[in-house]
Amino acid sequence: MATTLYKAKARFVKVSVGPASGNRVARIISAGSVIPEGVDADQIDRLVRRGLIEPFSVPDAADIEAADAKAAADAKAAADAKAAADAKAAADAAKKTPTTPAK
Asked: How does residue 89 score in pLDDT terms, banded at 50, 70 and 90?
């Protein structure tokens, strides 16, 4: 499962970080930077609607490991199939080559 984060689309975005009941700290985020944790969900929604930030997905470690394992299995299957095809071709070539009797 991928994790959804947000990044700034606008040149600069001001966000408030911290709990609604406590002290909040204003942070200025530049374009392309990740919005920090601790920003209120309502503020995230408002910034997305205004087009100032956008969501993006980050794959979890389990997703990356599964993709790597699948790629390794696919590469091994391809190598095994090529080796089998090469062995068959060599065997077919050996059958077609006439042998000369020893003198």
From this structure: confident
CA dist., res. 90 & res. 79, Å (int): 16
- Residue 84, SS3 per DSSP: helix
Residue of higher predicted confidence among 103 and 56: 56
With a threshold of 0.70, does the pTM exceed it?
A: no
Type of residue numbered 97: T
Partnered with residue 24 across adjacent β-strands are none
Going by C-alpha positions, the residue among 39, 35, 42 that lies closest to residue 16 is: 39
CB count in 10 Å sphere of residue 25: 10
